[in-house]
């Protein structure tokens, strides 16, 4: 009955958002400890914050196991160097999408790895293991003494006092080791489950294609299976509170110091099997990612698989997946970068984020939220959400300066980059903002880089017209309200409605009149200077 309910739950949840809690401190652990230096790019925390990465992850994540969740997080943070094995992966995604029985069989295996303890498996191949102290030979000596005195007890009853003395000393060593044991009481039993799940999944001829040589890793881990089984027994006893059996077992463990001897013996063996553990971890995680992607696509009204080219960005009816009833837009970027103008809340920043996150999902899970998308393999950098760093005594402007400095440094790294900026240098005065902004944006757009930037400074549209295509978002000001259509339009913004918006919000008439007078004077000065 329990299995039947689980099957119904898996069928019902396909294509839908997860209702689970997201423990990002645990989900991130595999990514934080993994060496991804050989990838095309590791997305920075700054860029992820700018693009609302955690919210995006919660939307994309349809995994069943905690391993799948950790691998999906890592996948989305890493821009790969190429798209190897994409055909095999797409065939499996299609298979999971149409073959419900195949998918459910696979998910039932993955569900065995759904407990939070599974998050700690990665520590077995990523983190330094506990080492036995230099005096560890004393534990072996005490264990041997307990065994010898117990065997010789019928011959010499006085050895009971030796046995009792050693037992009392052993109590201290036994509980000293508990801290080490508890550290691995979750990960080692779950590694046994992982190995079993991987073995079952690898029997399928389609899943086997993900890693044809995985059986070798499974066999190597099986060499330590018997010793690791002790930790599974310990974990179950602790959770089920089987007091009598636990008490007897605890006495035996104290008598012969079984726990420290087994623990450090297993850790020594696992230390030389890190690669094999990671192979199995990644195999299971990859399968879960593919099912997650199939589920994601199943729940979307529209999506596409991107075309990776060498030059242009082209998007047809692209939208932001986190915004309900988001208005889609289309754009083509070839020789020039993109400069967006428009008032606040008109859609500029959302559109910039839309382009950024669609390129990320396209390059990582081969899925874009659009009718069609084409783009190069790009490194992505952003300066969208910037705030004061009061703890380090840094102002908004200084934080922005440092962020854009990194962009300038990366703009000549020999590979194409995508720079996403929102209202550049808005933390300083108008004259210096415009002059500095123009110089920076001209520099960033060179070397095959593509820039998407929004601005309120109309002056920049004239200064950058040779290097940037101009687009804008606009609002419709009616008698008593303001409406936004969120549609991308070609050219620069010509209508200015800021003062009109103040007016319909019942600002004093004398204030409105003064603002209009000053605006007209400034316009005349600008025309005269031009």
Automatic annotation (TrEMBL):
Name the SMART domains on file: MUTSac
Residues of the signal peptide = none
- Asked if the record carries the keyword Coiled coil, the reply is no
Task: Tell me where in this chain the DNA mismatch repair proteins mutS family domain is found.
Answer: 335-520
One Pfam family of this protein, by short name? MutS_V
Q: Which residues cross the membrane?
A: 135-153, 159-176, 243-267
Q: Give me the Gene Ontology terms describing cellular component.
A: cytosol
- Which keywords, in A-to-Z order, does the entry hold? ATP-binding, DNA-binding, Membrane, Nucleotide-binding, Transmembrane, Transmembrane helix
Sorted alphabetically, the Gene Ontology BP terms of this entry are: mismatch repair
Identify the SUPFAM superfamilies for this entry.
P-loop containing nucleoside triphosphate hydrolases (SSF52540)
A single MF term (Gene Ontology): ATP binding
In its UniProt entry, what is this protein called? DNA mismatch repair protein MutS
Q: Which organism is it from?
A: Ancylomarina longa
